[in-house]
Design brief:
The protein has 209 residues and is an alpha/beta fold. It contains 9 helices and 7 strands. Helices cover 38% and strands 17% of the residues. The termini are far apart.
Amino acid sequence: MANQATELLIIFTKNPVLGKVKTRLASAIGDEEALRVHQALVKETIVKINQCHCDKVVYFSDRIDADSIFSEYGFRQEVQTQGDLGKRMQHAFEKEFAKGYTSIVIIGTDCPELDDASISRAFKLLEDKDVVLGPADDGGYYLLGLTKLHQELFDGIPWSTSTVFQSTVDCVNRLSLSLGLTAKKQDIDTLDDLKKSAFGNVHFPWLIG
């Protein structure tokens, strides 16, 4: 493990394949524009988190992409396992804790408001909290931080619904774990999300006008 670092940031992302990314957004703006939004969100995420003083690894949905922007920034690259989002996240946490990391935060690439200060805040909270969550406006979460694997946090959660965050909080409470929260932020999943975001207004004004 590089420099014996104890903190790791995991980034979950989809391989940039036409028709396979931002599908809810694509239903309103088409596959090609949705792919462009996805790629812009990925770049926005990398630029904002690159200054974080922690190890970083990207988990691709299907295959390692040696030509991706993550390679340009020197991120370690892995591939997600099969199964629903919970199974895939659980596998990533389990694999990385086995490497010796003691604090791990996982994010996606759908939240342009996320920055290095948010990540640093999450790791700071993990110094005395068992679990850290970053609530999203749509009822999900954009960030999950752990100091050890709790399998229950990945089982029975209604993924891709508006109750993901609350269901996870309920699970944390049932397990009697301590919980820290970062600020609520907005994910970009739909055209309405894009219209409401500063990211959309700056990067895709022709789509939201």
